UniProtKB/TrEMBL annotation:
PPR repeats lie at residues 22-56, 57-91, 92-126, 127-161, 162-196, 197-231, 232-266, 267-301, 302-336, 337-371, 372-406, 430-464. The keyword Repeat applies. Belongs to the PPR family. P subfamily. This is Pentatricopeptide repeat (PPR) superfamily protein. The keyword Phosphoprotein does not apply. The lineage of its organism: Eukaryota, Viridiplantae, Streptophyta, Embryophyta, Tracheophyta. PANTHER family: MITOCHONDRIAL GROUP I INTRON SPLICING FACTOR CCM1, PENTACOTRIPEPTIDE-REPEAT REGION OF PRORP DOMAIN-CONTAINING PROTEIN. It holds the Pfam family PPR_1. It comes from Actinidia rufa. Keywords: Repeat.
């Protein structure tokens, strides 16, 4: 910062001419240094003040304490608090708020709460900053009960939350699917004179879409516009994304046109939401038509666009077109990631083109993009299906030698391994339900059906229980052997 250098030169000239700078001047310089993270230099200025018989005041200490905490030097911050006591410099409301803010930032909510009585004992009442900071902290640690307690206490003292805090509470409520409470808070806040902004509405709109309640989301959208709250691109993207996921592609396109009419410029999120929406419907041709039209209008597809289109082509059985798109992206030097490779490897394995899939595994290894447990699941399944059990063993042995965590794969018979990437203890209800279904199908000898469900889950990123991998693997080996005997 140029002004900081200039200010330092002025102080130097003042000192040379026996014109001593005052505490305010030093405090201004110390604040500038702290903002830049130059804490040691700020401390040197404090020493210089004392040399000139200028006593650092509460503002000096507050600035240094805040600087130390912001730049991860909490030990010095606490030393400064002790120094204040020793030198008889009394903390003020700002000092207490700085500590409350730091405790909340660190997730130490008990200490933050304890700081409030200390503040009151010192003769200072918690202000809007104190309450807003505590409410934000409680929301971020998932303690909505305490957040609402603080809100009520705040309201009882005639204080108001700021918009950031209100939106944080709304976001937390929506995250916990407490949408009725979120809407009630929004309505009451408006009645109490709060300025409700587009972030408040946008948060609830996203919440209702996630809860698959499109009607309420659209009702809020209409209410927002009636109140002449101008939506930004972010809010339009939330709405377009929600409509696409709800299968309302016509309405999504209407929103895109409205966005353009309002002078906003769509971004990658806008376009990818619509492309993904068409692909989700199985309308790959329409997705590509939209993609091509948008490219003509200066849209630059990103890695997410590529992965959406590739996944749709492979899912709809258009592997050759998928390979063509994949190779085109590589030849153009476009960025691709592990998801891109896994999409192609899984599709090739399903088509029995194991050698081509293994070539891509080597390619992704050379680019240091993997493989990960999804890659190994696809390859292992293909090797087993092809009866190449020995190679499956060798592949897993190689994985062990490469130093992969033992939690990522599990022992089968005679040294075989299966990659899982997730422990049984962490399974969610969906994972448990699907695991049971796969186990039942294997018990009934319906291994192809079990494998089909397993493949669908792998694509969705849902893990199954470790025991299910064992059951499925054993079943596939058993099936292969029975087919071999029959031949």
């Amino acid at each position: 910062m140029g002004w900081l250098k200039d200010a330092a030169k002025v102080i130097e000239l003042m000192t040379q001419n026996n014109l001593l700078p005052d505490v305010w001047t030093y405090n201004m310089l110390i604040n500038g240094l702290c903002n830049e993270g130059r804490i040691e230099e700020a401390f040197r200025l404090q020493d210089e003040m004392e040399t000139l018989k200028l006593l650092p005041d509460v503002v000096t200490y507050n600035t240094l304490i805040n600087g130390c905490l912001e730049w991860k030097n909490s030990s010095n911050a606490f030393k400064l608090l002790e120094e204040m006591k020793e030198k008889g410099v009394l903390p003020n409301a700002v000092t207490h708020n700085i500590m409350v803010k730091w405790y909340c930032k660190e997730g130490k909510m008990d200490e933050a709460s304890d700081a409030v009585p200390k503040m009151e004992e010192s003769g200072f009442s918690p202000d809007c900053f104190t309450y807003n900071t505590l409410i934000n902290g409680y929301c971020k640690t998932g303690n909505l009960g305490e957040a609402f307690k603080m809100m009520n206490e705040m309201g009882g003292k005639g204080l108001k939350m700021d918009n950031v805090t209100l939106n944080t509470v709304l976001h937390t409520l929506c995250g916990e699917r407490k949408l009725d409470e979120a809407y009630e808070l929004l309505t009451n806040a408006r009645k109490r004179g709060y300025i409700i902004d587009e972030v408040s509405y946008g948060t609830l709109i996203v919440g209702y879409f996630k809860d698959e309640n499109m009607d309420k989301a659209m009702k809020l959208w209409v209410e927002m516009k009636e109140r002449e709250i101008i939506p930004s691109l972010v809010t339009y993207n939330s709405l377009i994304g929600g409509l696409c996921k709800s299968g309302k592609m016509g309405q999504a396109i209407t929103m895109l046109n409205e966005l353009l009419e309002n002078g906003l410029v769509p971004d990658e999120t806008t376009y990818n939401s619509i492309i993904h929406g068409y692909c989700r419907e199985g309308n790959v041709e329409q997705a590509f038509q939209f993609h091509n039209k948008m490219v003509e209008n200066s849209f630059k597809p990103d890695i997410f666009t590529c992965n959406i289109l590739l996944n749709a082509l492979c899912r709809e059985g258009m592997l050759e077109k998928g390979l063509k798109l994949f190779n085109t992206w590589i030849s153009k030097g476009k960025v691709i990631d592990v998801v891109t490779y896994n999409t192609m490897i899984t599709a090739l394995c399903k088509e029995g083109r194991l050698e081509d899939a293994l070539d891509l595994v080597s390619e992704m290894e050379a680019k240091k993009l993997g493989p990960d447990h999804y890659t190994y699941n696809a390859i292992l399944g293909a090797l087993t299906e092809a009866g190449r059990i020995k190679e499956a063993e060798e592949l897993m042995t190689k994985v062990v030698e490469m130093g992969k965590s033992s939690d990522e794969f599990i022992p089968l018979d005679k040294g075989q391994y299966m990659v899982t990437g997730e422990s049984q203890e962490n399974s969610d209800p969906d994972s448990i339900a699907y695991s049971e279904e796969i186990n039942e199908l294997c018990s009934a000898g319906k291994y192809k059906d079990a494998m089909r469900i397993f493949d669908e889950l792998t694509q969705k990123g849902v893990a199954v229980n470790k025991s299910t991998y064992v059951t499925l693997m054993k079943g596939l080996v058993k099936r292969k052997r029975s087919i071999s005997k029959g031949a």
